[in-house]
Amino acid sequence: MSEEPCVICGRPVTAEMKPFCSKRCKNVDLQRWLGGHYRVQTDEEPDPGEPIPIDPENS
Ligand SMILES: [Zn+2]
Questions:
Q1: Number of domains the chain contains
Q2: Of the four, 25, 26, 29, 58, which is 20 to 30 A from 36 by CA?
Q3: pLDDT, tens digit, for every residue of 6-52?
Q4: Separation of 12 CA from ligand 1 center, angstroms?
């Protein structure tokens, strides 16, 4: 079995803190969430009529 690295620092994750290596990294991730500059890919489709925020030619 191969453990995925911590999404924050790249160290091996622990079972308790997965997908993080430590509570500290978990908090770092939480802070990013609260900071509003952390995007997560989801499988959800965008709502119809909702403008797509990513537009490289217009940014
Ligand atoms: Zn970490």
A1: 1
A2: 58
A3: 999 999 999 999 999 999 999 999 988 888 655 556 666 666 776 66
A4: 8
